[in-house]
Amino acid sequence: MKILRIIFKKPVSQYHPFLYFCATRLRRISRSIKWKIDRKKYAKIKSKIPLTYRVKKHQSVLIQKLGESDIQWQLNKIINLKLASPSITDILIRPNETFSFCQLVGNPTTQKGYVEGMELSFGKARGGIGGGICQIANLIHWLVLHSPLDVIQRSQHSFDPFPDQGRVLPFGSGAAIFYNYIDYQFYNPTKHTFQIRLWFTEKCLEGELRSSVDLGYVYHIFEKNHAYLKIGNDYYRKNEIWRHKKEKYKSGEIIHTECMTQNFAKVMYTPSKIDYFFDSIEDYQASL
User: What highest taxon heads this organism's lineage (predicted)?
Assistant: First the structure.
């Protein structure tokens, strides 16, 4: 195995389109089997009636400046988002149920009307059918971070393709999606029911997380230890995402604080400011 790693500097599936197709197909079959035998109770029931209490609301701009990427990919992304969102909006996540993005949305194919939008893969931005629907997963993840729901499956891109332009949320607070084995899932461990609602305005995708009860507390998400690093000839970015749980009706007393995510990703552009320099990954790891 060690010899194979030396020979193949990249995953074997990247050396030929047929190998990539085979690897993807096998992973999708494996995930489909897992869905049938994992004994999870997946959320499937919807209700057009909003649950009584809003936990968190957020909006995400539809058209953004992303380097020199093709604007048509973003226009196509809106088409894809509007095809995917009805599968999720109004979904109820009842006690002991699991939300699965891929199960609800399904495979985004041309037969369903999906078009080529931007997706991040193999270290670069490129076109792909259904590209851009991860914007829904990003928004949902931000809502879930403000709740007692437990994220049980989340992937993020291993690289940062574009410099920040109007970023609102901390770096690394999104969720990558690739049907069906790169999924976004969360579990409801409480005795209450939650609901996700999505809608569109002229410029934004909007969403909210609602609950059947007033939780009596709120969450505040914040970033710590953000830095750009140069390691050898490459650039990287790191940060930590933390969360305060606060009393809602008292003086905002902090009940609990926890680190939610530690991010580390290769940067595909030259940062305007470098915080730390290292000769090698080994030197950086030794500094931790």
Answer: Bacteria
